[in-house]
User: Fold Two component regulator three Y domain protein from Flavobacterium agri.
Amino acid sequence: MKKIFTLALTLAVSAMFAAIPAAEKIALIRLYKNTNGAQWTNKWDLKKPETQWYGVTIKNNQVTGLDLSNNNLTGTLPTEIGNLTGLVKLNLFKNNISGQIPTRIGQLQNLQSLNLAFNKLEGNIPTTIGQLVHLQNLEMYMNRLNGNIPAEIGQIKGLQTLSLYNNELEGEIPTTMYGLASLKVLLLSSNRLSGKLSPDMANLASLENLSLFENKFDGQVPFDLEKLKNLREMNISYNMFNGLVSRKLAQLDTLHMTMINEQGVATTLKVEKDNTAIANED
Assistant:
């Protein structure tokens, strides 16, 4: 019995320290070196097993989690990050990561949560993001990302949170996004987005929080948005919307539908009640 117990213990210990695939170890080491690992708040001892590296979760000899949030990573993301194909969660929130998001991030097709927020990332959001079909939470706010929101995001059917506020994104909201029936939180404020809101936004049946604050949207706020029965919080002020808005929607806006007209002057949308337009400050 003692021999059996010893053997079982040996196997368990061996499994615990089993090496991850070489490609995954290369990716981790490259990330460490690219982001000045020697200056991390919680450093890695590369001589020790990967199971002892801070923020690394390993299951079945694969890296499934990487949480290095608020850890003073300074530098760029390596293309080899695409080697971490077993990742379910990647959290690099609040560091000093600069440069572009590697297109190979689309290879992380097991990801359920991706947080790159509060860094210094720039350039376009890669279209390969649409390959992350299991993603539920996508957070890239507080960066310097520009260009259009990729239409490919509409392929992530299980997406629940999309947070891209405080970037430099341009263009219209892709129509493909209106098919995201599971989306609960859509935060796109403080960008350079423009165009008119489509009535199809009412297809976001699960939406609870909508923030389009401080962009360049214009036209009328679609009355169809009243169909969003789960909507609890909305902020669409400091855009260039005009015309009438429903009272129900106006009551959700914390800044009372304050807009900026073409002359740069703050105005207030009028609220429709019983087919009569009245100022919403009454």
About this structure: Residues 2-171 form a domain with the Leucine-rich repeat, LRR (right-handed beta-alpha superhelix) fold (CATH 3.80.10.10). The radius of gyration is 23 Å. Helices lie at 2-16, 22-34, 247-252. The chain has a mean pLDDT of 90.
